[in-house]
Every structure is written in structure tokens, then in C-alpha cells.
């Protein structure tokens, strides 16, 4: 083998080594690029998966927050609830990863959640107002109690030094006035508590009415999220499963709430009073109307609507004759609205007159079984009139008329006998 042959072989060997090295280098570069692309895809997928998982968790947290909102104390410092902030942040993060169809489902779910949040907040406002009034009553009771303690200390000192002083009478009157106001405030607190319970349950009903739509939007969002992450499934079967479970959950929730309300007799807010009820109340409600006048005189006015809402459901007779009230019902209404602690019935006019003039009652209602018409004839009519005063010439009473009017009138003693009068005394 001559020189040129050796030279050719050497060149070929060298070229082969260079070509092999080049091929190896290209393969290495391709492997590196492939690995880089794979790592990039893994990072993007991991970030997308984390974003969807975070969104799902925050949707559940927000829903739990809204579900418990009727019973929560809302912040008064102007700060937004953490659940609201976290949901907004998680939903915004999906805009970097989700496709347009998925974003449409995401924004639809977010809108349903926000609408439910706003509707629940709006329904909760009356309960917040009742609580505010409750706390105001508490503060007033505390102030009156401190005032009474101070008055009592002064009174004790005066009784030791000047027991016949006129200041003693004034101080005792002030004490009696304050104690009466405290008693009324405690009654107001009880009423406010009942109102707050009723308003809270109404708020819960508002929330339950929108849950079905929320569950539907959550289902669509979860189906889209699985598609984005490549977790395919039989969509039709999944939708049927979620719908069935959501319905079962809602039915169970409603049933539980209803059973709790029934077991503990939690009041609910009645429907608005109808025009027919108001007309019947004018005709048959002379007794409750007298109590309204009595409440007005005591500085604690109550409306006909309040009485009808509270007692129509309790007394079936009010379905046909709204406001018709035997004496026992009249006493129930007076006690409920804190117009008295108890009541008594009497026919002895001298006894009633003495109690009325001594100021030991909170009010007296005249009850008559008959009425004298313009011709001087008597006819059967069970009627109530509020006694305003007892003058030498007879009783001055406030009387309600069936056309809705009212007025004062004098009833002489001989007329009381003809009308078979008796009295309800409130203490």
C-alpha cells in the first residue's frame, strides 16, 4: 500500500470521526431541546393544574362563606371578607391558562356566586337593623339603671335628713318612670329578638332559592376544568350524577331547616296584610283598635298591620272575621305588645272607678253586650271602647267605628246598666 492509499484512509477515518461527532452533537442538541420543551410543558401544565385546583378550593370556600352568611356578624370596619378576595384572585389567575370556552363557564360561575352574595347581603339588612336596635335598647337600659342608682342614693340621703320633703315624691315618680321604661325596653328587646330570628330565616330562604343555579354553574366549570387538564370522562353520566347529588343535597338541606323551624317554633315573616283583612279589621277589630289607642297613649304605638301579621295565623277565626277578639284574645294581644303584664275583668263600677282614678292601672276597656240606637232601643252588639276618664256625669270613652273612624263620647251611668257593661283592667 503506497503513501496515497495510507493518506486516503487517514482522511476517510478523520472525516468519519468528524461526521460521527457532528451527528452525536446534533442528537444531543435535539435531546436538550426536546427536554427543554418537555420541562416547559410540564411547568405550564403544573401551573395550570394548580390554578384550577386553587380556583375550585376558593369556590368552595366562598360558597361556604355565603351559606353561613345569614348567621354571621358582618365586618363593620370596611374590610372585605378574605373569602371574597381569594375568590377574585383565583378566578383572575385562570385568565392566564384557560381557553375561551372555559373562561365563559368560569365567569358565569363567578357571576352566580356574586349575585348570591349580594342577594343574601340585601336580605340580611333587616336583621342587622334589628340587632342595632337591640343594642341601642341595651345601652338605654344601662343608662337608666345607672340613673336609678344615683336617684336611689339621693333618695336615701333625703329620707334620712328630710323625710317629708316634696323632693321624695318627685324622686319616686322619676324612679317609677324609669323602671317602667326599662320594663318596656326589655319587652322591646324580646320583640326585636323574634324579629331578628324571622329576618334571619327569610335571609336563609333567599339563599336557598339560588343554590340550584350555583350548583349547575359549578358542574359546568368542573367539566371544563377536567377537559383543560386532560382528565376526560363520560360527560353525560357525570352531569346526571352531579344533578342527582345536588338535588338530594338541596332537598336534605331544606328538610333539615324546615324540621328545625317546626321543632323550635321559629317565627317567619308573614305576608303583607291584604286589603280585605284591613277592611274586616275595621268592622270586627274594635278590641284590638282600642289596644292601639292605649299603646298610642302609652307612647308605644303599634299598627293594625303588626297585630294582624302576628295573630291572624294564631286565631283561625280571623280568617273570616279579621280582628274579632274575645276578652282572652284581647289580653293575649296586650301582653304580647307589652301593654300590660296581666289583665282582670270586673263589673263593679265603683271598684273600677277607684282603680282608674288612683292611677294603678295601665288602661281600662269598657265591654258592652248591648248598644242603644238613636231611637233609644237596645240591640245585641258586643263592643269595646277605651276608657279615657271617669267624670261625675259619666264615662269619657274613645270608641272605634266600623267605617274606620273613631271619636270620644260620654256614657252615663244609667246607659251602662242598659248595655250590660263590664270592664277589662290592664295592670
Structural shape: elongated
Helix-and-strand structural type = alpha+beta
Number of separate strands: 6
So, the CATH homologous superfamily of the domain at 275-426?
Answer: Cysteine proteinases
Mean pLDDT: 80
Low-confidence stretches: 267-271
Number of separate helices: 11
Q: SSE layout and pairings?
A:
Elements lengths: L2 H65 L14 H12 L6 H62 L4 H64 L5 H30 L10 H10 L1 H12 L6 H8 L15 H10 L6 E4 L2 H10 L4 E10 L5 E14 L2 E7 L5 E6 L1 H6 L2 E6 L1
Antiparallel strand pairs: 1-6, 2-3, 2-6, 3-4, 4-5
Descriptive overview:
With 427 residues, this protein is of the alpha+beta class. It has a domain at 275-426: Cysteine proteinases (Cathepsin B, Chain A, Alpha-Beta Complex), CATH 3.90.70. It contains eleven helices and six strands. It has helices at 3-67, 82-93, 100-161, 166-229, 235-264, 275-284, 286-297, 304-311, 327-336, 349-358, 413-418, and strands at 343-346, 363-372, 378-391, 394-400, 406-411, 421-426. The chain has a six-stranded antiparallel sheet. Strand 2 and strand 3 form a beta hairpin. Helix 1 (3-67) runs antiparallel to helix 2 (82-93). It is elongated and about 155 Å long.
